[in-house]
Structure formats: C-alpha cells, structure tokens
Amino acid sequence: MLNDRIKSIFNGPVFEMIPFPGGPYDVPDDVGDGRPRLAVMSYDAVTVGGASVDVVPELVGRIHQRKGSDGSAFRAMRNNVVFVVADESRVEEMRGMMARRLALQELKKPERLAQLADHQQAKVRELEARSESEVAVAIQQTYRHVFYPSRLGAVEGSEIGHTAVEISSAAEKPGSGQQQVVRGMRDLSKLRLSEDEPDNPAC
Fold it and tell me: How many other CB atoms are found less than 10 A from the CB of residue 56?
C-alpha cells in the first residue's frame, strides 16, 4: 500500500516516472515518450541523511553512469534522468503514517463502526479522511532528496548534483510529489517548461 501511494504521488505529466529501479537495467537509455525520467528510489534500497550530501548513493551513481542488463555499457542520455531519494530520518514516520491510515480504514468498516458510540464513529470518519493527506505529506517530506545531472556544483567526485526540498515546501501540495521535483529543477535552471523564458543568447 505504501509503495503504491509513493508511485501515485510521484507520477505526473512532466517526468516519466520509473518506480524503484533495482539497477541500470530498469532505467531505459532512450528518448521514450520525450519526457525526462524520474527514478523514484526504493526507501528499502537507498536513503540519505541530513540536508547536505557528501557522497552520491552507490545505486544512484551506477544507474546514472551505466545501462543494460549487466550494467557494462555507459549510459548515453545521462542528462535525461533525475533521482528522488528518501531521507533516512523520516522513513519510520512515513511507515507509521501509512500503518495508522490502514488501521483507521479497518475501524471505518461498517461492522467495526457499529460497535462504537455515535461520537466515536464521527471521530473515526474524521481521522480516516484526514489520514490520506497526512500520508501524502509524510511521503513527500521523506522523499526530499533530489539528485540530478550536473558538472557545476556536483557532489564531489561525480557529475551529479544534489538538492534537498525544504520540509515546509514538501507539505504544500499533498499528493503532488512530482511538482516539488519540478519546482526544484526549475529553480536550479535544470528544467525548462514550455511557458518558461528561453536562455538569453550569448552576447
């Protein structure tokens, strides 16, 4: 259930989402449907701690560099893949929020509600309705680390840059996780949409 919710939150119109890639073989090295790709890394496989990152996670670096079933070939379209990674310190809270939502959904079943007083039934319904957005916020606050192709300002020893979405920003639009990645990439001038101004030509 948590994995399904993560996938739905980071799906969207700007990036083609690749959920939980296990290696280079899971991320195609072609133009696909024309959108750049967003690799949503599994919180069980890759996490990072803190706002600053000194080392690119090994799996992220390998997917960025390599392609194919055995990972022996170099990736040609490295500028076409962005990665979003979970914050280690927030994973348990995210899991806890999903467990709470599942428990409330169980309590909301008619046969369970019938055992409660009217005011308790109303409280369960209120908490269950609120829990959907609380899970979305928890997921977006956990998946706040974005790794992107960059030579300038790259993490030392790599061609990958890192930015961390502010916790408050991640809570602004529950359920629109891809938007926080888009906003971060546009702020860094790493992504341009059709409504954006083109680069100024060199004088």
Answer: 23
**Any idea where the domains of the chain sit in the sequence?**
2-89+139-187
Percent of the chain with pLDDT over 70: 92
Report yes or no: 67 and 24 within 8 Å, Cβ to Cβ: yes
CB atoms within 10 A of CB 152: 6
The C-alpha atoms of residue 53 and residue 40 are separated, in whole angstroms, by 18
> Torsion angle of alpha carbons 107, 112, 113, 119, nearest 10°?
-70
Instruction: Report d(CA 59, CA 39) in Å as an integer.
Output: 11
Is the pLDDT reported for residue 66 higher than 60? yes
Average confidence (pLDDT) over 79-99? 96
Does pTM top 0.85 for this prediction?
yes
